[in-house]
Amino acid sequence: MRRPLLATAAIFLALQAAGPVLAQAPAAPTSAAQAPVAVNAAIATPKQAWGHEAGEDYFLANYTQLVSYWKTLAGQSNRLKMIAIGQTEEGRTQYMMAVSSPENLARLDHYRGIAGKLALAKGVDEAQARALAQEGKAIVWIDGGLHANEIVPPQHLAQITYELASHDDAETKRFLDDAIILIGQANPDGMEYVSDWYMRIPEPTKREANWDSLPRLYNKYVGHDDNRDFYMMSQKETENLSRVFFREWFPQIIYNQHQPNSPGTVVFVPPFRDPFNYNYDPLIMSQLSEVGAAMHSRLISEGKAGSAMRSEASYSTWTNGIERTVTYFHNAVGLLTEIIGHPTPMKLGMVPDRQLPHNDLPYPVAPQTWHLKSSIDYSLTLDRAVIDYAVRNRERLLFNAWRMGQDSIAKGQADSWTITPKRIEALKAAAGAQEKVDAWSYGAKGVDPALYDTVLHDPAHRDARGYVIPADQADLPTAVNFLNALIKSGVQVQRATAVFSIGGKTYPAGSFVVKTDQAYRPHVLDMFEPQDHPHDLEYPGGPPKPPYDATGYTLAMQMGVGFDRVVEGFDGPFETAPDVITVPPGQIVGHAGAGWLISHAPNNAFILTNRLVKAGAPVFWLKAPTTAQGQTFAEGTLWIPASAKADGVVRQAVKELGLSAYGVDAKPAGATIKLKPTRVGLVDLYGGLMPSGWTRWLFEKYEMPYTVVRPQRLDAGKLAKDYDVILFPDGAYTAPVAGTRFAFKTKQPEPAEIPAEFRSWLGTITPDKTLPQIDRFVRDGGAVIAVGSSSAMGSLLGLPVRNVLVDDKDGKPTAPSTKDFYIPGSILRAQVDPTQPLAYGMASGVDVYYDNNPAFAATDSEGLKRVAWFSGDLLRSGWALGEKRLDGTAGVIDAKLGKGRVMLMGPVVTQRAQTAGTFKLLFNGLYYGPAVSGR
After folding, report:
1. Most buried pick, 434, 467, 781, 849, via CB within 10 A?
2. d(CA 146, CA 192)
3. What is the mean predicted confidence (pLDDT) over 254-269?
4. Rounded to an integer, what distance in angstroms lies between the CA atom of residue 66 and that of residue 148?
5. Strands 273-276, 707-709: parallel, antiparallel or unpaired by DSSP?
6. CB 319 within 8 A of CB 547
C-alpha cells in the first residue's frame, strides 16, 4: 500500500519554508519570534490557583486540583462551560470543558445538533448538508490522562484551558468563533492516584523518576487496557467518552494524547504506518494525513525539533477498540501523539540513526536535559495546530462527515464489496497464467480487467445488508450485552415486534436486527465480520512485523453471539431501540413441586448460582441429559430443589436476568454434582496485573465473591485455611522461555522505597518457593485454575502435559521462530466436549481468543481430560502463521492431582472481559474443582 503523499509533501514544503533555521537542530526547544499575546489578567493562571505553574519541575496537579481550577476558570470566563459527562469507576464526577465564543456557547445544543445530523446523515440530502456545514462549527475533542502514568497530557489540560480562556490574540479569537473545543480528562481516578503517589515524598528532588513503584493499576480494574475498551465500553469512563463522541457531540476530530516518545525523538505525531483497516472510509486516512502534516509543520515552524511519524513507531490504524482508532469506524479523525516528559528532569538521549533526517523524522533533535515544561509547550503547539486545521477546514470537515455517513448508508442499501487480502489472493489465483504486463500500468504486471467483476465483485462475497440476532438463541442475555455495546457506540439496533421471515427462515418476535445502511456501517462490519489481516512481514521471506494490538477481534465471535448474515435487502416489523436494551425477562414454566431446571447455557446462570449459594439454597448440576416440560436439558443443567430460600431468588432471576425456570414435581433421575460455597483466591502481583483486574471486574459483575492473594501469602503455605480454589490469571506466572515477549510488568521496588502498607504485596510466583505450596494445596484437595502464560505451571506440578510451543535448543527452552509460528491476538476455532463439567453449557465448538498462548500435547486418561482442543482449519479472524503446529493440541485441560484438581486454560478465556463465549470455562472451574475435590 502506498504511503500517504500529502503529509510528506506538506512537511517538505514546511521544511523548505523554514530555511536556514533548520540547518541543525537546536540544543533546546525554541520558538519563532512572535508578537506579545494580549492576556485577560482577570483570568487566574495555574500558578495563582496551585502555587505552581503547569509543567513546573517536581510538581504534578491531581484531578481534584484540576477540577477546582476548571471551576474557577468557568466562573471567570464567558468562553467556558464545564459539563459533567458521568461517573468514574471510583465514583468521581468526570468533567469536560466546552470552550468557544460566548455566542456559540449560548447555542451549544444547536451546534451539536448540526454535528449530529451531519454525522448520522440519514434523512439529510446534499443541499441540506452543505447548508448545515456552512452554518455549523467544527467540534474538536482534546484529552489527556487516559494512561495516568503518562503525565504530560493531563498536566497540560489546565494550561490549554487557561490560554483559550484568557488570550485575546487573533488566532485564539478565530478558534473561538469557528470551533467548539471539548477538553476532557479521560481517567480522573488515575490522575488523582498517580499525582498523589508522586507528590507523597516531601523533598521535591527525591521524588521518583519512574513509575515502577506504583502499587496497583492506575484504573480501578484495567490499567493500561482502559484504551482497549472502546468497542466493549465495559468501564464507566470509556462509556462516558463514547457517549460524548458518538451519541451526543459528534466531534469531527478526536485527539487522544499519550507518552512516551520513540527513543531519540521528542514526540510521535500522525500519520501512522500500515496496515490499513479495510472497513472504514478512505476519506478518514486522507484527512488524518492532512491534520498530521499541519501538526508537524507547526512544530517545525516554531523550531520544535524531534517529531516523528509512520515507521518511527509501531502505531497502525488496523485495530478497533482504541480511543483514536474507534473514531475511524465512526467517520471521525482520530489522532494519537506520544511525547517525552516527566516532572523530574530527565535526559533526552541520542540514537545515531535518528540524527539523520528522513521523511518520517524530518527535523532531528539534539540530546539535552529535558523538562516537563518543554513537553507542555510542545503539547500546546500541537493543540493549536489541530484546532487551526479544524477552523480553516470547518465546512469541509463538517460536510465530509456527512459524505462518509451518506456513503455508508448507500453501501448498506446496495450490493457492495470489501476488498481484503484473501480476495486479492483469489484474484491472483483466478488470473493464474493470464498475468501479463499491462501497458496501461506502466510496465507493471496486470490481469484481465474482467476479473474485477467476476472475482472481486463475486456475488457470493457481497457485504452484508444486515444481521439478524435470533431471540431464541441459547444465551440471549449475552447477545443483548453485545447489542448494547453497539448502541453505546452510536449504532442503530432494531427489534422485531412480530414474527418475520427472511430468505425462507422464520424468526420469532423479539429478535434483533442490525442493518448496515447507517452512518456507522464501518463499525457494524468490524464487530460482525472476520478481520483479514495482511501478511505483514519485515521484508519478503522475513519475520512478521508485530502488530500494534490484536489482529482479529470480531466481537460477535468473541462473545459467542448467534446471528445470521443477510446479503439481500430486507425489511420487517422492526422498531428502533431508543437506548440500551433491558434483557427480556424469562418465563416460569410448570409447577415446581420438587424444584426447577434452568439451562446452563446463559452466562447469567452464574449470577443466579452465586445468589443461591449466598442465600444458602442448594444447587446441583445434572451429570446427564434429561427432559421436562417438553424440553431437553443438557449435561450441566442447574437443578434447584424447591425451598423458601430458593423461590424468591429464582423468580427474581427470571425477571431480571432473562433466565427461564422449568418447574418439575420430581427430582430428575441420575447423578448430580452438588455445588458449595467457594472461597476464591485471585492472584495478583505488585503494580497490578491487567488480567487480574479484568477478572476482578468480571467477578463483581457476575457476583462471584473473591479475595486477592499475592505471592508472599502463597509462599507462606497452609492455603487450605483460606481458599478452596486459587486462580492464576495470565501473567501471574511465566515460564522462562527464550525468544518470548511478555507484556506485563515484573520490575518491583525495594521495600524501603514504598509505604509499609504495600510491602506485603511485593514478590513473584517462583518454582522454588510458590509452586511447592501450590502442589501441596492441590494434593490435599484444593483446586487451581491457571490461565494463559500461567498454565505453563502444569508441567511443573507433574502433570503429563507438554507445551508444544516450547522447543529444546541447546538444552534451553526456546520459543519457535516467529517465521515458523506466530498468531498475534486472533480468534481461532476450538473443539469442545460439552459433557465435561468444565464445558457444561457450551456447544461442541467455540471461538477462542488466542495470542501465542501455551498449547498442550496431552492424552486423555482417567486422571486427565482434554476439554477443548484445536483441530482442522483454525483461523476465524485475524492473522496466523504456522497454525498447523496447533493441530491436535489441547487448549483446556482438567486434571486430577492427589485429592484435588488442576485446570489449565492456555487461551485467555476472559480476555479484556470481551470473550463471553468462553467465560463458562472459568466460571465452571470455580465451582467444579471444589465440588469434586477429596477435601
Report:
1. 849
2. 12
3. 96
4. 14
5. unpaired
6. yes
CA 734 to each of CA 290, 729, 766, 790, 826: distance values in angstroms, whole numbers, following the listed order:
44, 11, 9, 6, 21
Cis ω before 275 (30° cut-off from 0): yes
Pair 312, 265: CB distance under 8 Å: yes
Over residues 721-778, the pLDDT tens digits come to 999 999 999 999 999 887 675 555 568 999 999 999 999 999 999 999 999 999 999 9
Q: For the purposes of burial, counting CB atoms within 10 Å of the CB of 577, is it exposed (0-12), middle (13-18) or buried (19 or more)?
A: middle
Dihedral class, residue 123 (left if φ above 0, else alpha if ψ from -120 to 50, else beta): left
Do strands 505-507 and 500-502 pair parallel, antiparallel, or not at all (unpaired)? Answer: antiparallel
Q: How far apart are the first and last CA of the chain?
A: 61
Distant-in-sequence, close-in-space partners of 886: CB < 8 Å, separation ≥ 6? 804, 828, 855, 870, 874
Residue labelled with grid coordinates 481516578: 189
Residue 775: Cβ within 10 Å count: 20
| 647-659 average pLDDT score | 97
Identify the pLDDT of residue 16: 35
C-alpha cell read off for 166: 484568557
Q: Assign residue 293 a region (left: φ > 0; alpha: ψ between -120 and 50; beta: otherwise).
A: alpha
CA 133 vs CA 119, 138, 324, 381, 395: distances in Å: 11, 9, 24, 27, 5
Question: In 278-314, which positions are buried (b, 16+ CB within 10 angstroms) versus exposed (e)?
Answer: bbbbeebbbbbbbbbbbbbbbbbbbbbbbbbbbebbe
CA–CA dist 293, 623 (Å, integer): 64
Number of alpha carbons in the 13 Å side-chain half-sphere of residue 730? 25
Contact 310, 272 (CB under 8 A): yes
Q: Using alpha carbons only, what angle is made at residue 779 by residues 774 and 780, rounded to the nearest 5 degrees? A: 100
Q: Where are the beta strands (DSSP E) in 312-435?
A: 316-317, 333-339, 346-348, 368-370
Please provide residue 802's backbone torsions phi and psi, each rounded to the nearest 5 degrees.
Answer: -140, 130
Radius of gyration from C-alpha coordinates of the chain:
29
Which comes out higher in pLDDT, residue 29 or 904? 904
The phi, psi pair for 533, rounded to 5°, reads: -75, 140
Distance CA 904, CA 853 (A): 12
Percentage with pLDDT > 70 across the chain: 94
Measure Cα distances from 774 to 252, 785, 787 in Å. Answer: 54, 11, 15
Q: Which three three-digit cell numbers place residue 875?
A: 483461523
pLDDT at residue 34, as a whole number: 62
Q: Does a cis peptide bond (omega within 30 degrees of 0) precede residue 544?
A: no
Contact predicate 763/717, CB 8 Å: no
pLDDT digit string, tens, across residues 506-559 = 999 999 999 999 999 999 999 999 999 999 999 999 999 999 999 999 999 999
Residue 444: which pLDDT band, with cuts at 50, 70 and 90?
Answer: low
Whether residue 140 contacts residue 182, with contact meaning beta carbons closer than 8 Å, is answered with yes
The predicted-structure confidence for 759-770, as pLDDT tens digits, reads as follows 999 999 999 999
- Distance between CA atoms of 803 and 856, rounded to whole angstroms? 5
Find out whether 895 and 794 touch, Cβ atoms under 8 Å: yes
Q: Are 685 and 217 in contact (CB under 8 A)?
A: no
Residues 6+ apart with CB under 8 A from 428: 435, 447
Length of the chain: 935
H/E element, 324: helix 323-326
DSSP secondary-structure letter at 744? S
Q: Are 837 and 621 in contact (CB under 8 A)?
A: yes
